[in-house]
Write a structure and sequence with these properties.
The structure holds two protein chains of two kinds. Chain A is mainly beta. Chain A is built from no helices and eleven strands. Chain A starts with a strand and ends with a strand. Helix content of chain B is 0%, strand content 47%. The chains are: A mainly beta, B mainly beta.
Chain lengths: 112, 118
Amino acid sequence: EDQVTQSPEALRLQEGESSSLNCSYTVSGLRGLFWYRQDPGKGPEFLFTLYSAGEEKEKERLKATLTKKESFLHITAPKPEDSATYLCAVSAGGTSYGKLTFGQGTILTVHP
Amino acid sequence: DGGITQSPKYLFRKEGQNVTLSCEQNLNHDAMYWYRQDPGQGLRLIYYSQIVNDFQKGDIAEGYSVSREKKESFPLTVTSAQKNPTAFYLCASSLRPGTGGSTNEKLFFGSGTQLSVL
C-alpha cells in the first residue's frame, strides 16, 4: 500500500526566514509526485509535478526537489502570502492511473 | 474561464436525509473525482470516473453514490447510510489517466463544499 507522510504538521516562520517542508513516500514504482497549495476553505491549487529522482522545479520563492524516498519543498525568503497548507501526493505503479495518494499536509504560517 | 464549479459552498444535512453535491467542469476533461477532506487528514478518494457512464469506487465509497451521465457533470449524493458526513468535499478533474503518462494525472480542483449535519 502506498504511503505518504508529510512533516512537520505545522511550521511557523518569520517573514524572510527560509525553510523546507518534507514529503516522504513509500510506493511501488513512482510515476509522479505532486505538490499543491491549499488556502483555507478553498480547493488545492497545483504547484509542481516531479517524475524522477534528481529532478528540481522552481516557481517564485518555491523550489521542489525529489529523491528516491522523499521530496522537499524549499521556501526561500517567505512572505505572509505564502501562508497556506501544502499538500503532497503520489501516483504509483501499484495503483490505478488517476488514483493519487495524499499526505496529510503541512500548515505553513509566515508572520510579518 | 475554464474551471470546475462546485455548489453549494455550504450544505446542511438533517438526519436520514440524502443530499447531492454538484460538480461541473468546462475543461473538456475525461476524468472526474470526488475527495473527502477531514481536518488533519489527507484527501481520501470517494469515487472516480474516467469516462461517461462509467465510475469506480475509491477508498471510502460506503454511504455515497455518483452518476456520470454527461462529460461535464459528476454529482455526488451523500446518503443517510453515511453516518459521519461532516467534511469538506472536493471535486477534481484531469485529462484521461493512463494516456500521456503521469502528466494526465495532474488534478484540477473545484473550490469545495462544506457539508455539516444539523
